[in-house]
Please model this.
Amino acid sequence: MTLEKIFVIAKTTFKEIWKSKILVNVFLIGLAMMVITYVATEFTYGVPERVALDFGLGMLSLSSLGISLFLGVGLLSKEIDSRTVYMVISRPVPRYAFILGKIIGLMGIQVVNVLLLSMMTITATILLGGQVTELLIWAILFTLIESLMLLLVVVLISLLANTVLSVLLSVVLLLLGHVIRETQDISFVATNPVLVKLLDSYHFALPAFYKLNLKSEVIYKSKITSSYLFMSGGHGILYSLFLLLMIVYFFNKKNLD
Model:
């Protein structure tokens, strides 16, 4: 019975976002990406498929992270402000069913977004003489995992802070999660045991988004071991599950009055 309620809330959330025509904008972004890619290849020599992959994966990442950031931050505040949440949880619907349904609905939009732009990226790559490699599929999958992880980060922070602060903190965590590896390679940091331990401990508490970024490896056809791919993907999935549990816990404790 509870699963049915979660499904209904997820379906309703998906339809509401779908009606906002956000995916129409995504489609237009995809078309613009293909046109820009074609124009850019006219000014490059020998590597047009790299241009397609660079633009395609870049737009895919920006679009997915943007949806997670700006739709995720208003996922609950809009429901609370319109008092819709009070109507739902008084039926009765468990709080965890409500929040899970909302998140799953938005995740569905993310999946459609990634599928749409990834198909355009693959099409552009093939038309320009490139190949669809296994690493490209992994990169697309990791982009989806990264966007879902950011979505959960945003929703969690929005339960604890206001909208503006939630956006700022989420962006900071996203940036930190991408530059942490480069920071560890700086000679000043590498020779400082305190900083080394501090940055190592980062991975146990905060999301390491850099592990899900395979763009450079795909473009330059670098080799990555299967163990790294599975460990990085597993990190993203396990961390997302942890965030989901934290969201359910804090939403159950949140005062909605």
